[in-house]
Write a sequence for this structure.
């Protein structure tokens, strides 16, 4: 095994599983017995082997805090709930991923794509700008025009302390 692949267990955080379990959605992480049903069922895992929920949970249980939080893995879950239905231990994986994401967000570890989406929400009140072209197309189908009303969305983002510039 190359030296770079050797894992230094002294860097592990044995409290990471407790930290996740204390987060809403993460309560059932200790139930996982690593059967792999979630990974075998996961449609995202079928597209990219970078995403493997069983492996993420295993890393979290081992205490690999930095690796889990600094990787982009947890952000790939599409929250489709397929694994939620199939997990024999009722680990509630999509909610667990949200719990890990919440910890990552508090440390400012937010992928650029989500920061961009927050910027769009602030600017337009939705995830994309609706302009004349879109409204003309809507008019063709007798649909009312969409107007940008972003003030309420900005207020919600402010109330939640959501900032797109966070690193
Ligand atoms: S299906 Fe449930 S018990 Fe099995 S590895 Fe996934 S989270 Fe763990
Ligand atoms: S909820 Fe997430 S982890 Fe579970 S199957 Fe769907 S994409 Fe995969």
């Amino acid at each position: 095994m190359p030296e770079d692949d050797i894992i230094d267990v002294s860097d592990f955080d044995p409290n990471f599983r407790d930290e996740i379990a204390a987060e809403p959605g993460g309560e059932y992480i200790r139930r996982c017995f690593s059967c792999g049903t979630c990974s075998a069922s996961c449609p995202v895992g079928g597209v990219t082997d970078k995403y493997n929920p069983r492996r993420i949970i295993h890393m979290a249980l081992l205490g690999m805090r930095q690796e889990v939080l600094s990787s982009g893995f947890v952000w790939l879950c599409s929250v489709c709930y397929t694994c939620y239905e199939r997990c024999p231990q009722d680990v509630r994986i999509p909610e667990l991923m949200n719990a890990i994401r919440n910890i990552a967000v508090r440390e400012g570890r937010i992928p650029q794509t989500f920061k961009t989406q927050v910027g769009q929400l602030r600017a337009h009140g939705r995830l994309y700008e609706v302009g004349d072209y879109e409204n003309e197309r809507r008019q063709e189908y007798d649909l009312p025009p969409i107007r940008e009303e972003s003030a309420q969305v900005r207020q919600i983002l402010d109330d939640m302390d959501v900032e797109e510039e966070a690193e």
